[in-house]
Amino acid sequence: MMPGGAASPLQQLIARFGTALIVTDPQQLAAVSVDHRQLYRGKALALALPRSTAEVSQLLAFCNALRIGVVPQGGNTSYCGGTAPDESGRQLVLSLRRLNAIRDLQPLNNSMVVEAGCILADVQTAATAAGRFFPLSLGAEGSCHIGGNLSTNAGGVNVVRYGMARDLVLGLEVVLADGRVLSTLGALRKDNTGYDLRHLFIGAEGTLGVITAASLKLFPAPRSIACGFTAVPDPAAAVGLLAHLREHCGDLVTSFELIPAVAVELVQRHLPGSRAPLAAGSPWYVLCEITSAVAAEALDERLEEALGAALEAGLLTDAVIAQSERERQEFWFLRENIPEAQRRDGPSLKHDVSLPINRLPEFIERASDWLAREVAEAYIVCYGHVGDGNLHFNLNQSRSGATDTADRLAGREHEIRRALHDLVKDMDGSFSAEHGIGRHKVEELERYAPPLELELMQAIKRAFDPNGIMNPGKVLRAT
Ligand code: FAD
Ligand code: 2HG
Ligand code: ZN
Q1: How many CA atoms lie within 13 A of 141 on its CB side?
Q2: Mutational pocket test of ligand 1: of 33, 73, 96, 287, the residue with most ligand atoms within 8 Å of the beta carbon
Q3: Rounded distance between C-alpha atoms, residue 329 and residue 327, angstroms
Q4: What is the pTM of this model?
Q5: Secondary structure of residue 149 in the 3-state scheme
Q6: How far apart are the C-alpha atoms of 100 and 264, rounded to whole Å?
Q7: How remote is the CA of residue 113 from the centroid of ligand 2, in Å?
Q8: Per-residue pLDDT tens for 39-81?
């Protein structure tokens, strides 16, 4: 009871929804009160585990009336602290994990309707089982949810060919802050009937409503794949190789990932069983893949020809094409495990930036020069989706043996971030390419977003969530 005998918000929640829906077990609350990178450790009022859109709707209507902040949570794999409740103990974490049904799949319409709590890998598997392809693919696909992917507008490794999460959506079902359900779950490819509201919720990181289901686009399954691992002398050659590959293979180019030697070493050091595909060392590598829906298309020959011409043009120094699915998986294992290897190597700072593709080499050079001059306590692990102009310009704590290096690096996070993001801004880039804003980059958004954009975002927030209950303090500062 609250002072004066009134029931507390938690007591009222339990009285209304019961303990099957409202969990208060301290261990479970601790697990959902911290984000994946452990940047923020909050204190949840409780954990809500709704089983249906109707229950999400009732929960939000109730929380809105009581002004209880709601923090939606999918797989909790995102990088900017968007999933952690604040430290007040007054915010409810709402997990979508029980909304995990595949409601419909229509091969002839190339579409499927899935609930928000479906794990991304399960969505891919269901599409494959129906002879179709859902292209969103990222290292966390075994645990992230499609609702989380849409709420962060995730990118991943197939963006070159298929676009970001946003580009894969035909419609959404969303519960608004006041509990009303907005459904645009149709499966239409053409529908020009006024403002396209679904796009407001995609990338909104749970600040405008809770996505409960989505209608997704499917594609023909790739039946021929060629995967190459190439050594390139520098990032400029990688960018040249991308243009060259697109000239030779056109839209078949599906993935194009830049990997530095230091990342290959990290994965080999921390993940036993990984193998470097090329014997001789190189400062940089590119993992590229071309795919086609046509079975038995001679893609290996096509890629070999393209890479041969690139070798002659000086764009690469060595290359190997995967000779089996196992070998292809080995190439990808190296790439997908860079974040995990970085994590095992110690504390790191992450910068998820994008630039016009032609300016990537200049950015890498200028940023690296600045760091070499100014930041002795870190080494650079710069890799990523060069095909999309997106670099993960990350720093790991140097292995100097000094015990205070980690603290010193963390202590300089703000200064380093400022220098790198100012440079990105100077070069017409973005300080958040695919990971979003969460709580971690609110200040960056305030600094770099044009004032009019920020003003319009605040107006949209007020229109959809006048009481400010939806993921307060994420993306925009809580008012
Ligand atoms: P969560 O972390 O649970 O939530 C993300 C945000 O969305 C939070 O603000 C949350 O409040 C909100 N939210 C979650 N579900 C809903 C919902 N149903 N309705 C409304 N709001 C909701 N990201 C990329 O873009 N590309 C990559 O290549 C990539 N690779 C990764 C590799 C690894 C190893 C890891 C650990 C992460 C990677 N990520 C990548 C980041 C992360 O996986 C993505 O951001 C992913 O989309 C998050 O999904 P999630 O279900 O874990 O969302
Ligand atoms: C990836 O591309 C992810 O592997 C994670 O987006 C990037 O850890 C990172 O910085
Ligand atoms: Zn990425």
Answers
A1: 19
A2: 73
A3: 5
A4: 0.97
A5: helix
A6: 36
A7: 27
A8: 999 999 999 999 999 999 999 999 999 999 999 999 999 999 9
